[in-house]
Design goal:
The chain is mostly helical. It is built from 24 helices and 2 strands. It has helices at residues 2-6, 11-19, 75-86, 89-99, 105-115, 119-126, 128-132, 136-139, 141-144, 150-181, 189-209, 211-236, 251-264, 273-277, 286-318, 329-332, 339-368, 374-395, 398-426, 433-437, 452-467, 481-485, 492-508, 511-531; strands spanning 470-471, 478-479. It has a two-stranded antiparallel ribbon with strand order 1-2. A hairpin with a 6-residue loop joins strand 1 (470-471) and strand 2 (478-479). Helix 10 crosses helix 11 (189-209), helix 10 (150-181) packs antiparallel against helix 19 and helix 21 runs antiparallel to helix 23 (492-508). The longest helix has 33 residues, at 286-318. The two termini are 13 Å apart.
Length: 532
């Protein structure tokens, strides 16, 4: 502990070292792979001033390294954060949506159970957060380099904004349904524009306030939605027509439903994971981090998607055809009073799940290098998502646009996640926080700020994923040759992960451990001298 404490540097020392062309630790930086900064945890490197961690106070920090003194979160807080995000009408929607693929009832259940195993990816992706003390796409600089990381960061920003747009579109549809119930026969375009504007303004608030507010609000909203879920189950289950989903599709086509569940669930959340786990203390048990994130999201996801399937089997008999995917007709057909509590809570939860994406998209813009504060980046996201929401509402097709979006994001996401995790295990979770934050130089600078090994693995992995992608009926329409040969099968996410992960491991299984060992060897003598 004495040696570790001796390596702590102050913010003025950090700035002074960088200004002289050295590393954050004071060691010279020659911008090569082997002469980077010593390995220091973000917690042991107080580069940023301490700030309070209180709900409903503005979080000043963005992608900054978080001192150990500011890490007030606990594993149960992470559990309820993810639980609160997923206890959401959006996941009912996904359960209904896979039924429209023509699945039989057993196929739908199996797709949900297997697809939700992907939440273990969320658990693994949460592990670097406490160790590095910073966000997912700051950690991503370790394998990709500061400049090389811009490529997957741009992909992630587009993905996050896409999910924000989905949430806002559903908010507009819910408000339209409320107005119709209140007697407004037709909602004009001007009113819908006003709804979109109000929605994006409300959506801005929680991501603007930051991490502590999000964690607190989602925890209490999850309690409310658990009660609502129990009521929904009581209303729906007695009226399910169990013979509604018969016949089914080929098992290759069934994989497209699994893709949707994986994309909207475990793999689709990996790019957010460290953004929220970074407020856990560095010494938090890895098992607790893993299970808190995985189970916190998986449990409500499975239950809601199963209820969505049941709702579909009620909807096909009671819907008039005007509802949004049969929700909430399945819940109100036999209890009209339930419409109002359902819709009110649905709006709150849709805003909440969008908060997760908007917070992450803001810090992703910072990781790309946009010179704005976190709240400024969130403002940019708010404007962009509002404009595109209008285009989808007035010109788009929710089913084809959504299905295509969820399919294509896996092309990059599976490959990126595999590279991130292979890198994590090769370096055994040891990150140099100062080097992650440096603009030039440091341990991860490598060749002009780019690790070409990771870039090659990402590009080849994405190419492989496209070979097994089935988006024939989506926009833009495309079917990969392997998908065509397998009758419409889609295992793009799995193939992309395997190919990218194997390539990065082959290219890096010697260099990454060596990089870490040499950096520690550089740090150790200096630490010992100071300690003595």
């Amino acid at each position: 502990m004495e040696a570790l404490s001796a390596r702590v540097i102050t913010a003025p020392q950090y700035a002074s070292n960088i200004s002289r062309g050295g590393s954050a630790s004071g060691h010279p930086t020659r911008r090569t792979l082997r002469t980077g900064d010593p390995i220091m945890s973000a917690a042991a490197t107080p580069l940023e001033a301490s700030e309070g961690y209180e709900a409903f106070q503005l979080e000043q920090r963005g992608i900054d390294l978080i001192p150990e003194s500011d890490r007030k979160m606990r594993p149960m807080g992470l559990f309820w954060l993810w639980s609160g995000a997923v206890w959401n009408v959006e996941f009912l929607f996904y359960g209904v949506l896979i039924c429209t693929f023509g699945l039989s009832f057993p196929q739908a259940i199996l797709a949900i159970l297997i697809g939700n195993l992907a939440y273990m990816f969320l658990g693994f992706a949460s592990l670097p957060g406490p160790l590095a003390g910073t966000t997912a796409f700051m950690v991503s600089r370790a394998p990709f380099g500061r400049n090389g990381n811009r490529l997957p960061s741009v992909f992630n920003w587009i993905t996050q904004v896409g999910f924000e747009i989905l949430g806002l579109v559903l908010v507009v549809f819910v408000v339209d349904a409320i107005l119709n119930k209140a007697g407004v026969a037709s909602v004009s375009n001007a009113v819908q524009v006003l709804i979109i504007i109000l929605a994006v303004v409300v959506q801005f608030v929680m991501p603007f306030l930051g991490h502590a507010t999000i964690k607190t609000v989602l925890r209490y909203l999850s309690y409310v939605f658990i009660v609502l879920f129990a009521v929904m189950a009581i209303l729906v289950l007695p009226h399910v027509h169990w013979a509604s989903l018969q016949g089914g599709v080929s098992w290759w086509l069934w994989t497209t439903a699994v893709v949707l569940i994986v994309s909207t669930g475990g793999l689709g959340w990996t790019e957010n994971a460290a953004d929220y786990s970074r407020y856990l203390p560095k010494d938090t048990s890895k098992a607790k981090v893993f299970w808190s994130a995985s189970l916190g999201a998986a449990i409500p996801s499975i239950l809601l998607e199963l209820l969505g399937v049941c709702a579909y089997m009620v909807t096909t008999h009671v819907a008039s055809g005007g509802e949004v995917v049969g929700i909430p007709s399945a819940f109100t057909a036999y209890a009209d009073w339930f419409f109002w509590p359902f819709m009110i809570v649905a709006i709150l939860q849709l805003f909440s799940i969008n908060t997760i994406d908007m917070y992450s998209s803001g810090v992703t813009l910072q990781a790309i290098g946009i010179p704005l504060k976190r709240w400024g980046c969130i403002l940019v996201d708010t404007v962009v998502s509002g404009v595109v929401t209008g285009l989808v509402v007035f010109k788009g097709n929710l089913y084809t646009d959504l299905s295509g979006f969820l399919d294509y994001i896996l092309v990059w996401l599976g490959a990126w996640f595999a590279i991130l995790m292979v890198d994590y295990f090769l370096r055994r979770g040891r990150y140099d926080g100062a080097s992650l934050a440096q603009k030039i130089g440091g341990l991860y600078w490598r060749s002009g700020g780019i690790n070409w090994k990771a870039i090659v693995a990402l590009v080849v992995g994405m190419f492989a994923a496209m070979m097994w992608t089935d988006a024939l009926y989506y926009f833009p329409s495309y079917q990969g040759p392997i998908s065509n040969a397998t009758g419409g099968g889609d295992l793009s996410w799995l193939l992309g992960m395997v190919v990218a992960g194997v390539i990065y491991w082959v290219l890096s299984f010697r260099s990454i451990p060596k990089e870490v060992s040499e950096a520690e060897a550089v740090a150790a003598p200096g630490a010992a001298r100071v300690a003595s």
